[in-house]
Structure formats: C-alpha cells, structure tokens
Design brief:
By secondary structure, the protein is an alpha/beta fold. Helix content is 37%, strand content 18%.
C-alpha cells in the first residue's frame, strides 16, 4: 500500500458484506498513514446482519479503527457539501445498487448524500466495485461513471468467472494507490485486472 499525504478522507461503506474484513485492513492502513478517516455507513451496512458478521459489531470496530464517529443519516451527510471538509471520498465496497443510484442522481441514503454533497465541491470520488452484475445490468452504469468528472475506479476484475460470470470485485489493496492518483486528477491504470494474475 502506498503512503499518502495526510488527508481528510470520507470512507463510505455499502452492503457488500463479503469484503468487510479487507475493508477494515484498508482503514487501518489509511489511519496509520496519518489520515483522518470519517466513516459513512449506508442504511444496509447499518442494519443487516448476515453470515459475514453483525452490523453493530462492524460499525463499532470501524469507529475504533478510525477514532471517528460515523455518519449515519442523510442529515449528517449533507454538510459535506457546504463545509467542504473532505479531500476525497471513497465508496468501498460500492454495490451495484449504489452505482445505479449514483447514475440516476438518487440520494436516499447517507452514502449517496455524501457522494452528492462531495461532488458539488468538484473533489475526487473513488469507487471500489463489488457487484454480482458488473457485466450485466450494471455495466452501463460503470461505463457512465467512468466517463463522469472527478470519479475514479479502484482496479477491478472477475472474482469467479466460472460460477458468477457477471460478477466483478475491486482489488481493495489498491484503494490507497487509487486515491493518490485520483488526488492528482488521474485514473490509476490498468483499471481491469484479473484477480488471478496478482
């Protein structure tokens, strides 16, 4: 993981629960690099317990790692716009549902409001894809977002092409490197990388 200059990072977490263990490692690395990291939780991330863990326990752990109280509702996320206190916003994991709503301008969760508020300041948004339909119905949304100003993608690839041929997931270990490039106005390359070649 690359070393970033100290920044204030909004780190928005949506409901792709299988990535959460790796996300905690990324958060730890960002904090250890001297960044202030403010977690933002989608409604799903706040409320759904599943085989990957308990939502409340995950939230507590993320707040412990970052040393920051999370943002939990739309009202708390809205000031990100007028106060402009984030240098960069990361959405990791970013589900297909969240990408679709971003494309449609829908702001019905704390994460989507954070994105809308932050984008008004023309600062970078980093998307870490995690969706079973990246090569299906969400492919058009990925394409639209890739062609949108100030939006950058963590490199991603098919995670199980035999069992889930339309599924793609980001290389979360490249989130920090993607952020560094995004803060310079550049998309890290290559964007499409097979998980099996790393």
């Amino acid at each position: 993981m690359g070393k970033m200059k100290q920044r204030t990072v909004g780190f928005a977490i949506t409901g792709s629960f299988c990535t959460y263990e790796k996300i905690k490692e990324v958060l730890q690395g960002l904090v250890e690099s001297g960044n202030r990291v403010i977690p933002i939780f989608s409604n799903t991330a706040q409320s759904v317990n599943c085989r990957f863990g308990d939502a409340r326990e995950f939230i507590i752990k993320v707040q412990e790692i970052t040393g920051e109280r999370g943002i939990f509702n739309i009202q708390e996320a809205e000031p990100i716009g007028p106060k402009a206190f984030l240098d960069i916003l990361v959405i990791a994991p970013c589900t297909g549902n969240t990408m679709a709503k971003l494309c449609a301008g829908i702001t019905d969760s704390p994460v989507l409001m954070a994105a809308k508020a932050h984008m008004r300041n023309e600062k970078p948004v980093v998307i870490s894809v995690s969706t079973n339909d990246a090569l299906g119905v969400n492919l058009k949304n990925i394409g639209e977002l890739m062609n949108s100003k100030n939006i950058y993608f963590v490199p991603f690839g098919q995670d199980d092409y035999a069992a889930k041929p339309k599924s793609m997931i980001a290389h979360v270990d490249l989130i920090s490197d993607t952020m560094e490039e995004a803060l310079k106005g550049r998309q890290i390359q290559p964007v499409i990388r097979s998980p099996f070649s790393l």
